[in-house]
Write a structure and sequence with these properties.
Elongation Factor Tu (Ef-tu), domain 3; single chain; 169 residues; alpha+beta; six-stranded antiparallel β-sheet; globular
């Protein structure tokens, strides 16, 4: 397990990532040191995957950054709901009913893609524009954002140029 800024992450071994059905995000369920979890693995931009290990899971599994852990995962078609950022949530709530209906009708995986696209910038102006474009695209019937590399690491807290930063390859 690694620590990058305030985040603790588990980077999957390459051989484990190769067995997954996608180089992009993958919904999984599994255990870490015998403790159940469900999450969405994120791509690292190096054909691999990583997952955030929150404080609750760290405590229950008895692990911290720097530790080695036993991880067992299985991909699943049951995607958990993403945490919708406040700015996107507010825009969706203020949007016409048509857009709210689309948001409710799309799959959790598609909602993850919208959230990921909005979150994939440090620039507040770009982020504001992405929220606006999300609403506009849904208003025109689009059910997914387009035109970004699904296999890139897009979390601005952890990535540089689409690749997981701060840890060795």
């Amino acid at each position: 397990m690694y620590r990058i800024d305030d985040w603790t992450i588990f980077r999957l071994p390459q051989e484990g990532s190769r067995k997954l059905p996608s180089r992009g995000q993958v919904a999984v369920q599994g255990t870490i040191n015998g403790h159940d979890f469900q999450t969405v693995l994120e791509p690292d931009g190096h054909s691999g995957h990583w997952m955030k290990v929150d404080q609750k899971l760290q405590r229950s599994a008895g692990i911290t950054a720097g530790d080695t852990a036993t991880l067992e995962i299985q991909s699943t078609k049951d995607w958990p709901e993403p945490r919708v950022p406040k700015d996107l949530e507010t825009a969706l709530a203020a949007a016409p009913q048509k857009i709210q209906d689309i948001w409710r009708d799309i799959t959790p995986m598609a909602r993850w893609e919208w959230v990921r696209w909005v979150n994939a910038t440090r620039n507040p102006d770009t982020r504001k524009r992405r929220v606006e474009v999300s609403i506009s695209k849904m208003n025109s019937g689009k059910r997914r954002p387009c035109c970004f590399d699904l296999a890139a690491c897009t979390d601005p807290n952890l990535s540089r140029s689409g690749r997981l930063a701060g840890i060795g390859q």
